[in-house]
Structure formats: C-alpha cells, structure tokens
Amino acid sequence: MNNGKVLIYGGRGALGATCVQHFKNNNWWVGCIDLTENASADLNIIVNRDDDWVSQEQSVLSKVESSLNGEKLDAVICVAGGWAGGNAKNNLAKNSDLMWKQSVWSSAISATVGANHLKAGGLLALTGANPALSATPGMIGYGMAKAAVHQLTKSLAGKDSGLPNDSLVVSILPVTLDTPMNRKWMPDADFGTWTPLEFVADLFHKWTKGEERPSSGSLLKLITADSKTELVLAE
C-alpha cells in the first residue's frame, strides 16, 4: 500500500528525477510526464515535442485520466523548464518560443491536470525563477516565461480558478540549482550558494503531506548561502 499518488511533470530532468526517486523512496506512487521515460516511475506519459500546446494538453489529460481510473492525485509538481540567454538583438522570438514551451506550456498543462485530478487540499507546485522578479535584459525570453509562471501561480490561487477546494498552489523561485549540468558549465562557481536538489524534493514531499505549508499563491525564493537554504517569500 502506498502513501498516495503524485505526478511529476519534467520527471526525467535532474530535479525531476530527484523528486521521482525521493517520493518512491518514501512509498508513493509516482507518475512522470516528460519527453522521455523515467524507469523509476510507476507511470510514464511521453509528450510529443512536435505537438502544439492544445494537442499536448489533450494527450496528457487523456493519459492521466485513463491511468488513474477514478483515483485522485495528492500532488502535481511541475519542474519542467530550461534556460536560454539572449537580448532583443538576436533570436528573441526563437528563444522566447523555446522558453514558453518549456516553462509555460508545462505549467499550464500541470494546472489543468490539477484542476481535473487533484484531491481537495492537494498540492500544485510550479517552478518560477528568482531573477524573473526583476529585469532580465540578458535573458529576455527566459524572464518573460518565468514571470508568466509567477502570474499563473497567483491566478490559480484565486477564487474560481478551477482547482479543488483548499488546494495549495505555490511556485519555487530558485537562484541556481546544484545540477550536474550547472556544475559542468560553471565549474568555478561557489557551490555553497547553489540549492541542493534533494532539499527541493524534500520540500515538495513535506507540502504533499500537509507539513510546513506556505499560503496558497506564494512565490518562494530559495536562497542558499554556506550550503544552507532558506525560503524567502517574494514581495
């Protein structure tokens, strides 16, 4: 008997895979939505990257519904995303389109899954970004997409958003996550200021269990210093 059911959108990436494994280790049924399969998950829903937004949503919803067979989810956690730099001079539309697909499409589809399949009091967690709280002239597409996720979080926490009663909607706003890829590209950085993936996974686990929950609609900055991470509510 498992503790409940959680769905990780982006469960094949560094953070997502850590979340899948953390929940599995704590005896949860875990579904993964991504472009490729995570062998550790109980369910894999593969998204076709060539489908448009509406088709992706319809496909994911249909597969979630048939897999759950009437049961409800305790949490939908979206950690899908990516990064692209660039200002307005070159490839703004191209970079923005990619960021929108990776961060906004996935977040909105997660919201729709949550509205249809979360338990009352369930968790919908999205991933924003601390830099997107202000200007991002060197990564405009990224900043726009993450700012949209922040707005989506606030809207979903509002009355009549379509989510079940007493749902918790929250966005984490990392500065830098301690991923293998970040270490590869920034080998000389101060890793003591990077947020460990296991810390984030444990945070989601606590919230799913109803522990130490922030208020719904919160945008929570993950601020790490000297290898210690604290949550700071964005103004």
Helix-strand pattern? EHEEHEHEHEHHEE
Q: How much of the sequence is in beta strands?
A: 15-25%
Radius of gyration: 17 Å
Low-confidence stretches: none
CATH top-level class = Alpha Beta
Task: Explain what this protein looks like in three dimensions.
This protein is an alpha/beta fold and 235 residues long. It has one domain (5-179, 196-220): NAD(P)-binding Rossmann-like Domain (Rossmann fold, 3-Layer(aba) Sandwich). Helix content is 38%, strand content 22%. It has an eight-stranded mixed sheet with strand order 3-2-1-4-5-6-7-8, with helices on both faces. Strand 4, helix 3 and strand 5 (118-127) form a beta-alpha-beta unit. Helix 3 runs parallel beside helix 4. The longest helix has 26 residues, at 92-117. The model has no long low-confidence stretch (mean pLDDT 96).
Short characterization:
With 235 residues, the protein is α/β, with parallel strands linked by helices.
Features:
eight-stranded mixed β-sheet, 235 residues, 6 helices, Rossmann fold, alpha/beta, 8 strands
